[in-house]
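Quick one: sequence plus coenzyme A SMILES, need structure tokens.
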Amino acid sequence: MNNLLVPLRPEHVPDVVQTHLASFPGFFLSFLGARFLAVYYNGICSTPEGIGFCYLNASGVPAGFVVGSSNPRGFYSRLLRRHWLSFSLASVRAVLRKPSVLGRVARGFLHPGGNPVGNHVAGLYSIGVLPELQGTGAGKKLVNAFLFEAANRGCNRVFLTTDRDGNEAVNIFYQKLGFTLERQYQTREGRSMNEYWISVAKDGENE
Ligand SMILES: CC(C)(COP(=O)(O)OP(=O)(O)OC[C@H]1O[C@@H](n2cnc3c(N)ncnc32)[C@H](O)[C@@H]1OP(=O)(O)O)[C@@H](O)C(=O)NCCC(=O)NCCS
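Reply:
Sure thing.
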């Protein structure tokens, strides 16, 4: 079986969670744990405003993913309202280990600093490829599938945010794909972030 891109479905979520944990070691969402990530990715694929794709390896197992929303305005608040109990239960262990994560989760969902709003805009929230497959073109295919889908849903522009410091490879990756750095800001936790945008066209010809 050849590598394949498919829309993200609930049955892919366990492998997507493992890919997330492997590609984002030490990151906040990874600290929240596999259960929290499963609620998050299931939430995205169960809502019509979610966009998600999986990159299947030669054995048909998800080894990369990209997710986001074609309606970023209030997306995380709606996700939290729909799945508040599952998110709460999934966070318990992380909160007991580090109580301060509670405030950060609440801020992330209710006032996501890096979540610009506007009409006909999509947000690309998370992308990851298993370390052993990185550099083989999977990430590029995932981003292009995401942009194509966003355009088909009537979006004109797509944004994403990524760390500015210590993250040169990822910044180069997005720049090579045609994203333009339009804003820089600091999160409340002191992370310096880059906000990238790209225009997309409905015929799939990303500008
Ligand atoms: C970022 C990530 C998704 C990229 O996926 P990937 O499959 O490794 O990237 P690709 O192989 O598709 O590379 C696409 C282009 O970016 C370039 N690129 C990728 N990684 C690079 C690196 N470390 N340094 C320089 N260029 C790089 C490739 O050379 C390629 O350019 P080309 O089209 O001119 O050949 C992947 O590395 C990853 O999962 N990283 C960890 C998780 C992460 O940081 N996600 C992003 C958070 S915002």
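The domain at 4-199 is CATH 3.40.630.30 (Aminopeptidase). The chain is about 40% helix and 25% strand.
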